Amino acid sequence: MNYDKEFWDKYSDENESRYNEEFAKFTRDLATSLRCTSILEIGCGTGIDLRLFPDTFEIHGIDLNDHALEIAKEKFPIAEFKKGSIAELPFGDSSVDFVFTHGLMNYLDDETLKKGISEIFRVSGKYIMNCEKFEVTEKQIDKNQKFRNMKNRWLDYKVRFVSDVEMHEDIEPDKPKFTLLKKL
Q1: What pLDDT score does 85 carry?
Q2: What's the rounded Cα separation, in Å, for the pair 123 and 66?
Q3: What is the CATH number of the domain that holds 44?
Protein backbone atom coordinates (compact mmCIF):
# COMPACT_ATOMS: atom_id res chain seq x y z
CA MET A 1 0.00 0.00 0.00
CA ASN A 2 1.35 3.41 -0.96
CA TYR A 3 0.94 5.74 2.04
CA ASP A 4 1.70 9.45 1.52
CA LYS A 5 2.16 10.85 5.06
CA GLU A 6 2.38 14.46 3.89
CA PHE A 7 -0.92 14.17 1.96
CA TRP A 8 -2.71 12.57 4.93
CA ASP A 9 -1.32 15.05 7.49
CA LYS A 10 -2.70 17.88 5.38
CA TYR A 11 -5.98 16.01 4.92
CA SER A 12 -6.22 15.63 8.72
CA ASP A 13 -5.65 19.33 9.29
CA GLU A 14 -8.52 20.10 6.92
CA ASN A 15 -10.80 17.32 8.17
CA GLU A 16 -12.69 19.43 10.72
CA SER A 17 -13.99 21.61 7.89
CA ARG A 18 -15.42 18.45 6.28
CA TYR A 19 -17.61 17.67 9.28
CA ASN A 20 -21.07 16.76 8.04
CA GLU A 21 -23.48 16.63 10.96
CA GLU A 22 -26.23 15.07 8.82
CA PHE A 23 -24.00 12.14 7.89
CA ALA A 24 -22.88 11.70 11.50
CA LYS A 25 -26.54 11.69 12.65
CA PHE A 26 -27.48 9.26 9.87
CA THR A 27 -24.74 6.82 10.87
CA ARG A 28 -25.56 7.04 14.57
CA ASP A 29 -29.29 6.62 13.97
CA LEU A 30 -28.76 3.72 11.57
CA ALA A 31 -26.53 1.79 13.97
CA THR A 32 -28.98 2.48 16.80
CA SER A 33 -32.00 1.33 14.77
CA LEU A 34 -30.15 -1.89 13.90
CA ARG A 35 -29.70 -2.55 17.65
CA CYS A 36 -25.93 -2.38 17.47
CA THR A 37 -23.90 -1.60 20.58
CA SER A 38 -20.38 -1.52 19.14
CA ILE A 39 -19.13 0.45 16.16
CA LEU A 40 -15.89 0.68 14.19
CA GLU A 41 -15.00 3.26 11.58
CA ILE A 42 -12.06 2.23 9.43
CA GLY A 43 -10.13 5.23 8.14
CA CYS A 44 -11.69 7.35 10.88
CA GLY A 45 -9.35 10.30 10.40
CA THR A 46 -10.09 12.80 13.16
CA GLY A 47 -13.22 10.91 14.21
CA ILE A 48 -15.79 13.36 12.86
CA ASP A 49 -18.27 10.63 11.83
CA LEU A 50 -18.20 9.07 15.31
CA ARG A 51 -18.67 12.12 17.51
CA LEU A 52 -22.45 11.91 17.85
CA PHE A 53 -22.40 8.37 19.22
CA PRO A 54 -23.30 8.25 22.91
CA ASP A 55 -21.12 6.53 25.49
CA THR A 56 -23.65 3.69 25.60
CA PHE A 57 -21.86 2.45 22.46
CA GLU A 58 -18.46 0.79 22.39
CA ILE A 59 -16.85 3.20 19.89
CA HIS A 60 -13.72 2.38 17.88
CA GLY A 61 -11.82 4.19 15.16
CA ILE A 62 -8.78 3.04 13.25
CA ASP A 63 -6.49 5.02 10.99
CA LEU A 64 -2.89 4.99 9.73
CA ASN A 65 -2.28 8.68 10.39
CA ASP A 66 -0.83 9.56 13.82
CA HIS A 67 -1.71 13.23 13.44
CA ALA A 68 -5.38 12.44 12.72
CA LEU A 69 -5.54 10.06 15.68
CA GLU A 70 -4.12 12.70 18.03
CA ILE A 71 -6.90 15.09 16.98
CA ALA A 72 -9.54 12.34 17.29
CA LYS A 73 -8.43 11.42 20.83
CA GLU A 74 -8.45 15.07 21.88
CA LYS A 75 -11.87 15.87 20.37
CA PHE A 76 -13.67 12.63 21.32
CA PRO A 77 -11.98 11.00 24.33
CA ILE A 78 -14.77 8.47 25.03
CA ALA A 79 -13.86 6.53 21.88
CA GLU A 80 -10.98 4.13 21.47
CA PHE A 81 -8.77 5.18 18.56
CA LYS A 82 -5.98 2.92 17.31
CA LYS A 83 -3.33 3.12 14.66
CA GLY A 84 -3.77 0.34 12.16
CA SER A 85 -4.38 -0.78 8.62
CA ILE A 86 -7.58 -1.99 7.00
CA ALA A 87 -5.52 -4.95 5.76
CA GLU A 88 -4.81 -6.13 9.35
CA LEU A 89 -7.55 -5.00 11.72
CA PRO A 90 -6.65 -5.38 15.43
CA PHE A 91 -10.03 -6.86 16.41
CA GLY A 92 -11.31 -10.37 17.00
CA ASP A 93 -13.56 -12.30 14.66
CA SER A 94 -17.17 -11.00 14.64
CA SER A 95 -16.29 -8.65 17.53
CA VAL A 96 -17.89 -5.39 16.32
CA ASP A 97 -21.61 -5.07 15.54
CA PHE A 98 -21.38 -2.29 12.95
CA VAL A 99 -18.27 -1.69 10.82
CA PHE A 100 -18.18 1.16 8.32
CA THR A 101 -16.09 3.18 5.90
CA HIS A 102 -16.81 6.65 4.57
CA GLY A 103 -14.69 7.70 1.62
CA LEU A 104 -11.82 5.37 2.48
CA MET A 105 -12.15 2.68 -0.17
CA ASN A 106 -11.66 5.23 -2.94
CA TYR A 107 -8.07 5.80 -1.73
CA LEU A 108 -6.95 2.16 -1.60
CA ASP A 109 -5.05 0.22 -4.23
CA ASP A 110 -6.81 -2.92 -5.46
CA GLU A 111 -4.76 -5.38 -3.38
CA THR A 112 -5.25 -3.43 -0.13
CA LEU A 113 -8.96 -3.09 -0.91
CA LYS A 114 -9.27 -6.86 -1.39
CA LYS A 115 -7.51 -7.60 1.91
CA GLY A 116 -9.49 -4.86 3.63
CA ILE A 117 -12.86 -6.25 2.58
CA SER A 118 -11.85 -9.66 3.90
CA GLU A 119 -10.83 -8.06 7.21
CA ILE A 120 -14.04 -6.04 7.47
CA PHE A 121 -16.04 -9.22 6.96
CA ARG A 122 -13.95 -11.04 9.56
CA VAL A 123 -14.39 -8.46 12.37
CA SER A 124 -18.02 -7.56 11.64
CA GLY A 125 -20.56 -9.20 13.88
CA LYS A 126 -23.77 -7.94 12.25
CA TYR A 127 -23.61 -5.07 9.73
CA ILE A 128 -21.21 -3.47 7.29
CA MET A 129 -21.65 -0.08 5.65
CA ASN A 130 -19.59 1.45 2.86
CA CYS A 131 -20.26 4.99 1.71
CA GLU A 132 -17.98 5.57 -1.28
CA LYS A 133 -17.74 7.43 -4.57
CA PHE A 134 -19.19 5.09 -7.16
CA GLU A 135 -18.91 3.97 -10.75
CA VAL A 136 -20.26 0.69 -12.18
CA THR A 137 -16.92 0.08 -13.88
CA GLU A 138 -14.30 1.27 -11.43
CA LYS A 139 -12.07 4.04 -12.73
CA GLN A 140 -9.43 6.48 -11.56
CA ILE A 141 -10.72 9.84 -10.24
CA ASP A 142 -7.30 11.44 -9.81
CA LYS A 143 -3.83 10.24 -8.80
CA ASN A 144 -5.07 9.52 -5.24
CA GLN A 145 -8.61 8.19 -5.73
CA LYS A 146 -10.59 5.63 -7.67
CA PHE A 147 -14.36 5.33 -8.07
CA ARG A 148 -15.48 2.00 -6.58
CA ASN A 149 -18.29 -0.49 -7.09
CA MET A 150 -18.57 -1.85 -3.56
CA LYS A 151 -21.58 -4.04 -4.35
CA ASN A 152 -19.51 -6.07 -6.81
CA ARG A 153 -16.72 -6.35 -4.25
CA TRP A 154 -19.06 -8.05 -1.74
CA LEU A 155 -20.62 -10.63 -4.08
CA ASP A 156 -18.31 -13.47 -2.95
CA TYR A 157 -19.10 -13.00 0.76
CA LYS A 158 -21.92 -14.39 2.88
CA VAL A 159 -23.86 -11.15 3.18
CA ARG A 160 -27.34 -9.91 2.39
CA PHE A 161 -27.65 -6.55 0.66
CA VAL A 162 -29.92 -4.35 2.74
CA SER A 163 -29.30 -1.26 0.64
CA ASP A 164 -27.19 -0.19 -2.34
CA VAL A 165 -28.32 3.31 -3.31
CA GLU A 166 -26.98 6.83 -3.74
CA MET A 167 -26.95 8.81 -0.52
CA HIS A 168 -29.46 11.66 -0.54
CA GLU A 169 -27.70 14.98 -1.14
CA ASP A 170 -29.14 16.39 2.13
CA ILE A 171 -27.15 13.75 4.01
CA GLU A 172 -24.05 13.62 1.82
CA PRO A 173 -23.79 16.33 -0.88
CA ASP A 174 -21.42 14.30 -3.11
CA LYS A 175 -24.11 11.58 -3.26
CA PRO A 176 -21.76 8.60 -2.86
CA LYS A 177 -23.09 5.05 -3.02
CA PHE A 178 -24.47 3.80 0.31
CA THR A 179 -24.04 0.05 0.62
CA LEU A 180 -25.41 -1.62 3.74
CA LEU A 181 -24.84 -5.33 4.30
CA LYS A 182 -26.07 -7.83 6.85
CA LYS A 183 -23.47 -10.45 7.65
CA LEU A 184 -24.92 -13.95 7.39
Answers
A1: 95
A2: 23
A3: 3.40.50.150
